[in-house]
Amino acid sequence: MILTNESDTLADQVGRGYVESLQRRLPDWWLMYSPYGRSLVAFYRGPCAQGGIRVEAEHPEELLRLMGDAIQTQWKTQPGLTRDLSTDAARESPSGSQKGTAR
């Protein structure tokens, strides 16, 4: 038997809801919710350096910013990567703002 309280269950439901919403809009990423750390985790599915790109954050806005930063870094350092997806991630901000843009 696993004991959980109501706030934990609600937090997990909200986290999974964020993932479902973002996954539909960001097909180049594989997103999941980690109940252990109560965080959002994203893995980039496109071309990138060996080892891949993995980012983790507690909130969707932060995750989108980190995703954009990670892609921007890859775009700058990998000559074969021609599509700048950092702006795609920033555009998909849940609040519709541009706060998550990478520099």
Describe the structure in your own words:
It is a single chain. With 103 residues, the protein is an alpha+beta fold. 43% of the residues lie in helices and 16% in strands. The chain has three helices and three strands; from the N terminus they run H-E-E-E-H-H. It has helices at residues 6-25, 60-77, 86-91, and strands spanning 29-34, 39-44, 54-57. A three-stranded antiparallel beta sheet has the order 1-2-3. The radius of gyration is 15 Å and the shape is elongated.
Question: Key terms for this structure?
Answer:
103 residues; alpha+beta; elongated
* Sheet with the most strands: spatial strand order: 1-2-3
Structural class: alpha+beta
What's the overall average pLDDT, rounded? 77
Radius of gyration based on Cα positions: 15 Å
Question: Cα distance, first to last residue?
Answer: 47 Å
Number of strands: 3
Quick one: overall form? elongated
* Helix-strand topology string: HEEEHH
Number of helices: 3
Number of domains: 1
Biggest pleated-sheet summary:
3 strands, antiparallel
Parts with pLDDT < 50 across at least 5 consecutive residues:
95-103
* Helical residue percent band: 40-55%
How much strand content do the residues show?
15-25%
Region (Disordered): 75-103
Biased composition (Polar residues): 94-103
Secondary structure: elements and pairs:
Layout: H1 6-25, E1 29-34, E2 39-44, E3 54-57, H2 60-77, H3 86-91
Antiparallel strand pairs: 1-2, 2-3
